[in-house]
Amino acid sequence: MQKIKNSIVDRMIEQKCTANEITFLLYISMFQDLTGRVTGVHYKDVCDATNMSIQGYYDVKESLENKGFIRCEKNDYSDCDITIVGNAYNGEEYNRAGYINTNHNIFFCKEFQELKAGAKLLAMKLMIITFSGKGYFEIGVKKFYDKENGYQKRFDVSSRVMRSYLMSLKPLFSIGIKDGKYYIEPKKIIYRKAGTKEEAERFREKAVEVVLRRSRIKEPGAGEQEIYNLFRQYDAKAEVEKKQLVSLIDRAVKKSLEILNKGKSWIKYKIINIKLIHKLLREEWSGTDKQQKAKESPSEERSENNNERVEKDPVIEELLYQALHPKAAQRKGDAGEKKYKNNNKFNNFNQREYDMEALEKLLLLTNPRSLPTD
Question: Quick one: DSSP state of residue 136?
């Protein structure tokens, strides 16, 4: 959801938000879900996108939180989850109240980014008025600069400063005076530019980046596209059921890595097994308790460390086998369709074959004492 309520813009004007605070809110709003929550805000991403310093990032985050614009939660060591307070989408009521689409091209323009804070807020206010009205703004010059009820009073600045704000918007708005009135109309540069990413596409790309970073997967390979497709498959359903999809998939990926690495604290094999992740996502979605499900499973095994009973999920075991022994799994699948043929012409009996790569991985993951012997 790339939207900010009109009421939030009015609060930004009242509390005189700084240029960095405005930029910060506009940036994170592009990656929020329907609850106004942005999962996995990383300081480096914000700094790279907005040219903000690291100290500036932390100062802005703290000041916006103190002013009541955002609420921050630390749910991962590498980043934080930020909710834009009062910006949750609730359907027709939200639409009637009005909002600004933060995917408009104006917010990516250099001309807007270089404006002073007051000029940025004036531009946003003019967008609200023109988009909800005739497509242009008509107001008397005297009324615009009125100290009691005009925009000079609303922005709490002198007429000279207010005039400088208005004139600095000329690259973005057509501004003319006729019969003692201002006529202000947005230029085409404000609207969506050809080739600009769609809202859903931008959200999914950032969500995939968050999931991979939180699991420290630096070389995802084809798995990056697979996780993107998973977001595309479930994002509509998540909106309907008001689920935090990024958090759900993040937990599913982390659990899959724990399973693939036999629960070891040091995760060596960072393999994206999309089938396993998909299964775990469905469990997360339904709120199933994994430990309770393990107790109800019929197959059991003894823990080597504490002799507790540990349940096996046959689906997960099969996915684990496929991930760690791809060649053996492929041969096993082929055998189901056609019986393996012995191509050795010298001997007329089947000879045992070993998948050395699979055995090597098995040796790295398994306690040698638990390996079968001939």
Answer: S
Give 10: exposed, middle or buried? Use CB within 10 Å, 0-12, 13-18, 19+: middle
Q: How far apart are CA 72 and CA 56, in angstroms?
A: 16
Q: In what order do the strands lie in the sheet with 79-84?
A: 37-41, 79-84, 70-76
Residues 6 or more apart whose CB falls under 8 angstroms from that of 227 comprise 208, 211, 212, 220, 249, 253, 272, 274, 277
CATH topology of domain 1-103: Arc Repressor Mutant, subunit A (1.10.10)
Closest CA to 61 of 24, 10, 98, 103: 24
pLDDT band at 64 (very low <50, low <70, confident <90, very high): very high
Instruction: Kindly indicate the confidence band of residue 346, based on its pLDDT and cuts at 50, 70 and 90.
Output: very low
Cα four-point dihedral sign 218, 220, 225, 226: negative
* Measured distance between the N- and C-terminal CA atoms of the chain, rounded to whole angstroms: 60
Cα–Cα distance measured from residue 210 to residue 39, given in angstroms and rounded to the nearest whole number = 8
SS3 57: helix
List for the chain the helix, strand, coil content (%; round to 5): 55, 10, 35
Q: Tell me the per-residue pLDDT of 306-317, one tens digit each, with 9 for 90 and over.
A: 444 445 555 556
User: What is the CATH T-level fold of the domain 105-196, as seen in this structure?
Assistant: Arc Repressor Mutant, subunit A (1.10.10)
Q: What are phi and psi of 305, to 5 degrees?
A: -85, -45
Cβ neighbours around 56 below 10 Å, total: 18
User: Using one digit for the tens of pLDDT, what is the confidence trace for 273-303?
Assistant: 888 888 888 888 777 444 444 444 544 444 4
What is the pLDDT, as a whole number, of residue 178?
A: 85
- pLDDT value of position 362: 55
| Average of per-residue pLDDT values in the chain | 76
Nearest to 3 by CA among 115, 110, 124, 114: 124
Q: What pTM was computed for the model? A: 0.68
Same fold yes or no, 1-103 and 105-196: yes
**pLDDT at residue 191, as a whole number:** 77
Alpha helices in 298-369 (DSSP H): 314-324, 326-337, 356-365
Instruction: Name the nearest CA neighbour of 61 among 86, 78, 39, 80.
Output: 80
User: Which residue ranges make up each domain of the chain?
Assistant: 1-103, 105-196, 199-311, 325-370
